[in-house]
Automatic annotation (TrEMBL):
Catalytic activity field: Release of an N-terminal amino acid, Xaa-|-Yaa- from a peptide, amide or arylamide. Xaa is preferably Ala, but may be most amino acids including Pro (slow action). When a terminal hydrophobic residue is followed by a prolyl residue, the two may be released as an intact Xaa-Pro dipeptide
Keyword Protease: yes
Protein's name in the database: Aminopeptidase N
Peptidase M1 membrane alanine aminopeptidase domain location: 231-443
EC number in record: 3.4.11.2
Keyword terms, alphabetized: Aminopeptidase, Hydrolase, Metal-binding, Metalloprotease, Protease, Zinc
Lineage summary: Bacteria, Pseudomonadati, Pseudomonadota, Gammaproteobacteria, Cellvibrionales
Pfam families linked to this entry: DUF3458, DUF3458_C, Peptidase_M1, Peptidase_M1_N
Task of the protein: Aminopeptidase N is involved in the degradation of intracellular peptides generated by protein breakdown during normal growth as well as in response to nutrient starvation.
Source organism (scientific name): Halioglobus japonicus
Length: 884
């Protein structure tokens, strides 16, 4: 909390540290009121960076009890304790600095540093939480070898964990148990972890490619011990995959995972001691949906992959965050693609990117993948750094090809093992290994905003040639008015009557070596370029941005017929889905205009027929079919509407009308599919069962939108389900399309049956938070008083308030401003409890420029926040940038 406005930190000001900490010894005495932390820091002046004998350590909310230099009490004239610093003067070149600090984890509600979750102690140090444990150079480029001893009451805390290997356990004269952990790999403070609790674990082992045996353990509260198997299997699959695909072997004899209930993010990659939000590791058919199972697999993989991309090679400073996050998201996405359907995974990722990252890139917090400044780094764990960062790595993969990319990755890991490096180092390794020139490509790291590609075509029948003219532009973003052109790989093909056509670019020799001459990647690197294809028998329909080969908005004036052709006939699964989406957007937008004009909704029969045809297509993977039949989300439609033009009510009404029209038109086919796909077997999170359930849910949604028979099916599904996936799908449909009498009883029954399972309750809260009826706001307020709700638990806040503000546009944007008020009040209260969560929750209010007729109301809530006393740096940054 600060009184004055917090300052901005700039990438251009980066300076190497003037001291290094070669070894770090920490000693914790965990108590019920307070914890004492003794540090022994083996300091060495970093002569590369001048000759100063002054050192400023970071420290926050610490009480300094004792301080020694080389064993002697340090004279008070040699140090100064500041608000968030400890300044040391006249330090020798090499010395041992020792501090005793007192901290109060029991009172730490920020969930950064050392804190309590239920009955256990745990830590979260990324990005700058370590400074809440002891005075330190809390920055990623200071890598140190850690030795940690923990003293604790073994009755309360029989499990005492830290990074690396357990070297000693002893019983002390005072009755406490002492453990000693040593991590041989130098690491920055953000990867430090400690856990103490009364935990159970499951155990397995993994034999690495060089034959080493690794013990794998997952620690949870006793009640959750049966929910760990899926995570363990996912971990083993990840370890094997990283060896096979990236040549990365695990490097210690032990790998621990701990599940905690109170956690700001999904999980954390602390060296050999990953800490997970329970929602991202526990799996059980009655608490975890199919999507949840897939998420657990992906997050377990993500954290594990960080062992190389993040831990062995880490970031020099936090501006380089995407170095580890973008690369690791790319790696986990490749893993998930290999474990399941590549196209479906791609569709899911692009859906997130387009509906949320594009909005971030167009909003007041827009920043490049490698930001140039920040006030609070915690605000920069964004979709841009993670997901767009992964897209940037994916484009490098596309430009270089798989072999050269792997060579670049090998070179990067070999060259920088044990170092803290930059995005530039990554790109240099990729260039050197491949011979490619990524000079202009680097604009993706430095420029914010989503590029727009505008494509026009010209068909010359006589010559049999077809020209595509592609121009690129990028809107201004905060601090960046003019953008240089990007290098944009546009994967494409041309669709003819009988399928994809052979591609021959004018002026280029035919390539006899390529088997697949119906697919090509065009390099767009200028403001405008024309590509001419020759030797074509007919005017083609262009299939553009296959596989979503670049994170751009693409504009081409397709006719609805063209879209239908692509949808059913293109070789590329992504383009087939994307064409269905575009068709959906165009139909919903048309209906929106009809309704606005006071006319009845007339859904284009072409669209209804196309949906019917899809439902008859038995060759299509049901998971893919489910994606193709899912209408674009309200948020995506709002984003497409553009600044000042999003009419949430209009979008909702139009989208619902289209759902109902498809539901009526295709009733028979929907009912048939719904019945056919019923899973008779016991619940299992297999690809086949998941696909069936997801398509059934889509069918049910259409049928319920169309009327009573769908609601009856939903009721029956709720009663018969043996898993939460089908229960929630039914509840969602009942509460979206039914009246109180349809959903009230099942909603209550769900809680009666599963109220003892926290993770199930969270989803029950989320379903209610997204209901479109008029009672939504009163319901959310009421649920905030529910005994199961707790403002201190981020999962609860996200489920109820986050879902309301992010997934219930109709009610969040109510004309009377009550939705905005609710969010502002919660953010104001959370500001002092947990600033990180407060600031994340605020995101929907920052999009005030988008919503027709709402800008003033939304702004005035932001202004109220801005005028609050004791505003955290986190909330201050988001509010002040949003109001600019
Ligand atoms: N590095 C973790 C996620 C994480 C990020 C930030 C945090 O606090 C600001 C905490 C965790 C990951 O990528 O999984
Ligand atoms: Zn990560």
């Amino acid at each position: 909390m600060r009184d004055a406005n917090p300052g901005t930190i700039y990438l251009k000001d980066y300076q190497a540290p003037n001291y290094l900490i070669n070894r770090t010894e920490l000693h914790f005495v965990l108590g019920e009121e307070e914890t004492l932390v003794t540090s022994r820091l083996h300091l060495l002046r970093n002569t590369e960076n001048g000759d100063s004998s002054e050192l400023i350590l970071d420290g926050q909310d610490l009480e300094l009890v004792e301080i020694y230099l080389d064993g002697d009490v340090l004279d008070p004239s040699c140090y100064e304790v500041g608000e968030a610093t400890l300044l040391l003067r006249d330090l020798p070149e090499q010395c041992l600095l020792s501090c005793v600090t007192r901290i109060r984890p029991q009172l730490n509600t920020s969930l950064e540093g050392l804190y309590r979750s239920q009955t256990m102690f745990c830590t979260q140090c990324e990005a700058e939480g370590f400074r809440k444990i002891t005075y330190y150079l809390d920055r990623p480029d200071v890598m140190s070898v850690f030795t940690v001893t923990i003293d604790a009451d073994a009755d309360r805390y029989p499990v005492l964990l830290s990074n690396g290997n357990l070297e000693e356990t002893s019983l002390l004269a005072n009755g406490l148990t002492r453990v000693l952990w040593h991590d041989p790999f130098p690491k920055p403070s953000y990867l430090f972890a400690l856990v103490a609790g009364d935990l159970e674990h499951i155990e397995d082992s993994f034999t690495t490619c060089s034959g080493r045996e690794v013990a794998l353990r997952i620690y949870v509260e006793e009640k959750d011990i049966d929910k760990c198997d899926h995570a363990m299997d996912s971990l083993k699959r990840s370890m094997r995959w990283d060896e096979e695909v990236f040549g990365r072997e695990y490097d210690l004899d032990i790998f621990n995972v701990v599940a905690v209930d109170d956690f700001n993010m999904g999980a954390m990659e602390n060296k050999s001691l990953n800490i997970f939000n329970t929602s991202c590791v526990l799996c059980d058919p009655n608490t975890t949906t199919d999507v949840g199972y897939q998420r657990v697999e992906a997050i377990v993989a993500h954290e594990y992959f960080h062992n190389w991309s993040g831990n062995r090679v880490t970031c020099r400073d936090w501006f380089q965050l995407s170095l580890k996050e973008g690369f690791t998201v790319f790696r986990d996405a490749e893993f998930s693609s290999d474990m399941g359907s590549r196209t479906v995974k791609r569709v899911e990722d692009v859906t997130l990117l387009r509906s949320a990252q594009f909005a971030e890139d167009a909003g007041p917090m827009a920043h490049p993948v490698r930001p140039e400044s920040y006030i609070e780094i915690n605000n920069f764990y964004t979709l841009t750094v993670y997901e767009k960062g992964a897209e940037v790595v994916r484009m490098i993969h596309t430009l270089l090809g798989p072999q050269a990319f792997r060579a670049g990755s090998d070179l990067y890991f070999a060259r920088h093992d044990g170092q803290a490096v930059t995005c530039e180092d990554f790109v240099l390794a990729m260039e050197e290994a491949s011979g490619a020139d990524l000079g202009q490509f680097r604009n993706w790291y430095s420029q914010a905003g989503t590029p727009r590609l505008t494509v026009t075509d010209a068909w010359n029948k006589e010559a049999g040639s077809y020209a595509l003219t592609i121009s690129q532009s990028c809107p201004a973003t905060p601090g960046q008015d003019d953008k240089k052109p990007f290098v944009i790989p546009v994967a494409m093909g041309l669709l003819g009557d009988a399928g994809n056509l052979r591609l021959q670019l004018q002026g280029e020799a035919p390539d006899p070596d390529t088997e697949d001459n119906t697919h090509m990647v065009l390099m767009v690197d200028k403001p405008e370029q024309t590509f001419v294809f020759e030797g074509l028998p007919e005017k083609p329909v262009p299939s553009l941005l296959r596989g979503f080969s670049a994170p751009v908005r693409l504009e081409f004036d397709y006719s609805r017929n063209d879209l239908c052709r692509l949808m059913s006939g293109d070789d590329d699964g992504f383009v087939r889905w994307d064409s269905a989406q575009s068709l959906g957007v165009s139909v919903i937008t048309e209906v929106q205009a009809q309704l606005l004009a006071g006319d009845e909704a007339q859904v284009d029969p072409l669209f209804l027929e196309a949906c019917g045809a899809l439902l008859q297509d038995d060759a299509l993977d049901p998971a893919m079919l489910a994606e193709m039949l899912s209408l674009p989300s309200e948020n995506y439609l709002a984003e497409l509407a553009g600044e000042g033009a999003a009419d949430v009510q209009g979008i909702y009404r139009a989208r619902t009308a289209v759902l109902a029209a498809v539901g009526s038109h295709c009733r028979e086919a929907l009912e048939q599919r719904y019945a056919q796909l019923a899973v008779e077997a016991k619940y299992a999170a297999t690809g086949e069962q998941i696909a069936a359930r997801s398509l059934r849910a889509v069918c049910l949604n259409y049928l319920a939108a169309a009327g009573a028979s769908g609601l009856a099916l939903a009721n029956a599904q709720f009663a018969a389900a043996d898993n939460i996936t089908e229960r929630l799908a039914a509840l969602r449909v009942l509460s979206q399309f039914g009246s109180r009498s349809d959903w009230e009883a099942p909603m209550a029954k769900f809680y009666d049956d599963w109220g003892h399972e926290t993770l199930a309750v969270n989803q029950w809260l989320a379903v209610q938070a997204s209901m479109p009826d008029d009672g939504a706001i009163a319901r959310v307020r009421h649920l905030m008083e529910h005994p199961d709700f707790d403002l201190r638990n981020p999962n609860k806040v996200r489920s109820l308030v986050g879902t309301f503000a992010g997934q219930n546009p109709l009610n969040f944007h109510r004309e009377d401003g009550s939705g905005y008020r609710l969010l502002r009040q919660v953010v104001a209260e959370l500001n002092s409890i947990n600033p990180q969560i407060a600031s994340r929750l605020l995101a929907p209010l920052t999009k005030w420029r988008y919503y027709q007729g709402r800008a003033e109301q939304m702004r005035s809530e932001l202004e109220l926040l801005a005028s609050m006393d004791g505003l955290s740096a986190d909330v201050f940054e988001v509010v002040s940038k949003s109001l600019k």
